[in-house]
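Incident log, support desk, overnight shift.

02:14 A customer reports that sequence design results differ from what the structure should imply. Their input is reproduced verbatim below. On-call engineer (initials T.W.) acknowledged and began investigating.
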């Protein structure tokens, strides 16, 4: 799991010349993330743990998937207060933009009839999700509310990232399934692939905090 610095600490090192790239990369990543979620929904082969929960809530309340994503993100963000987490512009944007993007993409995308096409859509959605995650995390403007919940709990409890993340995702997955969310091969494939994908994309998409010197990137210990 990639450690995410608190936005306030990172902000001290953000050159103004890099801000346009950070903003473009942030919002491109968030939009693509929402599109990848819609693709996985339309593949109908299982969702990632949080989206199983979102889908279960949406089914029970009759809300759109994107609306549930926004509301859940806002509620999770409130949980940052006792954890003393500090949101950034990327955190707040994450709550709103992904929800709008997933609803817009769902209005355009339709479920393929052929199984091979659904499998291809599922695989493409997971790869795109990893790319999108690398984009918005690499912009360095604040973690998503769910990522921040995890890192906040790790800091407050002293538990390992793996244990805390597994615990959170197990709870939301089980709750979502009980509410009628979709679990399938896509859920398993996402769990296995998303870590390596973000690990691949994130270093290539991370905007350096400091400019390079004489054409060489600044190395930080």
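02:41 Re-run completed on a clean worker. Output:
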């Amino acid at each position: 799991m990639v450690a995410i610095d608190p936005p306030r600490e990172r902000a001290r090192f953000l050159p103004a010349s890099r801000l346009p790239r950070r903003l473009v990369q942030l919002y491109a990543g968030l939009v693509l993330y929402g599109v990848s979620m819609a693709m996985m929904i339309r593949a109908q082969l299982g969702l990632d743990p949080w989206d199983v929960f979102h889908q279960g809530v949406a089914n029970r309340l009759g809300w759109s998937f994107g609306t549930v994503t926004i509301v859940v993100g806002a509620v999770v963000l409130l949980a940052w207060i006792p954890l003393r987490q500090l949101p950034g512009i990327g955190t707040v944007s994450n709550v709103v933009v992904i929800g709008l993007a997933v609803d817009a993409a769902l209005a355009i995308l339709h479920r393929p009839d052929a199984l091979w096409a659904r499998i291809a859509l599922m695989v493409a959605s997971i790869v795109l999700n990893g790319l999108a995650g690398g984009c918005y995390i690499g912009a360095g403007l604040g973690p998503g509310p769910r990522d921040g919940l995890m890192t906040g709990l790790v800091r407050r409890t002293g538990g390992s990232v793996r244990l805390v993340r597994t615990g959170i995702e197990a709870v939301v997955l089980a709750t979502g399934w009980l509410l009628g969310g979709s679990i399938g091969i896509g859920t398993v494939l996402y769990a296995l692939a998303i870590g390596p994908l973000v690990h691949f994309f994130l270093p290539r998409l991370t905007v350096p905090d400091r400019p390079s010197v004489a054409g060489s990137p600044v190395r930080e210990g």
